[in-house]
Amino acid sequence: MADDGDRHRQSRLFTDEDGAFDADRAREESLPVEDGEVIDTDELADHQRYVEGRGVYDERNRVNDLTGKEWKYATKSVIAESYPPAVQHDLRSEHGGQKPPRLCADLIDRFSKAGDTVLDPFAGVGGTLLGASFCEHEGTGLREAIGFERTERWIEIYREVLAEENDERRARGEPPLAEQELRHGDCADLIEDVPDDSVDLLLTDVPYWHMDELEQTRNERETRESKLGSFDGAAATAGGGTGDAVTDADDAVDRDFETDDGPDERQTKEAWLDDMAAKFDRFTEAVAQDGHVVVFIGDMYREQSYEFLSADLARAIESTAPLSLAANLIWYDPTKDLHVYGYPFSFVPSMVHQNVLVFRLEDGT
Fold first, then answer.
1. What separation in angstroms does the CA of 111 have from each of 81, 127, 157, 283?
2. What is the pTM of this model?
3. What residues pair up with 144 in beta bridges, in sequence order?
4. Closest of 183, 119, 193 to residue 149, by C-alpha
5. How far does CA 262 lie from the centroid of its chain?
6. pLDDT tens digits for range 151-164
7. Pairing relationship of beta strands 287-297 and 199-205 according to DSSP bridges
8. CA–CA separation, 244 and 339 (whole Å)
């Protein structure tokens, strides 16, 4: 009987009736097949190994646990995927700017390895934390996640979501999601307790300029229910919300808002950028040298002008923190509902995407 090396080489002779390569027959013979071609494992380098059903993995990979085939897909600059309203969506929707946990899991898969530590300094209802837990069962392995959140209600919702989701998973015979650590307090204070170089990935959705006031006002409207993956609400104005449409985009931004602390002080964009830059400068001290910083940020249409917040934020962070912008990924939901803005007098964009800024430390490789 031929050894495995001969068997793999001879398997290239597997053809169908038309003389084309028969991948199904090759798979039946337990041969490694990738992109319609049999992989000759004898020709793999010492630092490579074949992972059944996933492709060839390179042991030198310091970024993630993806195979070459998975890596190729993960480098696409546009994530054109609709994430369904799952994972206790009704609970999480109380927070107008939450992100789909499985989207977070996909990004965690791209920029960390199993066992790594993930930090979200603006954790909200815990989308990043849930994503880190999903990686154990649906990705490449469990990550340990830490979140900071100053609003106690959002922390309560994360715990309720985790409890109800795990009840449903157990009822389906599935293993439960691991509970992650969500700390209550201001991120500027809590970051002091995180050791330097201890975080492998920082993944977060920043609080938007004027966004808190927009979200609070929209959540008080009982007739308008937040929808996962729909950016029409503040997106017509801020690009980062996940609620239903605001009828008048400019009016939604310019009206006066009341917050828990009193009237809105109308923070300028410049002040917001300075605040974000200073925070990320401090956050970066906790990130390991070969780690990444990944930030959700939507653009804004305000007062008949397009505010390129993603570019502004990237420049502000790069000018202060020791980070370099490595990529700008676009998350686009092809199934989202469109609304008509400005017709028939003025072209007003209907935001259907968000930016995902990817930074790495300046002197990293």
1. 18, 16, 27, 17
2. 0.77
3. 117
4. 183
5. 33
6. 999 999 999 999 99
7. parallel
8. 10
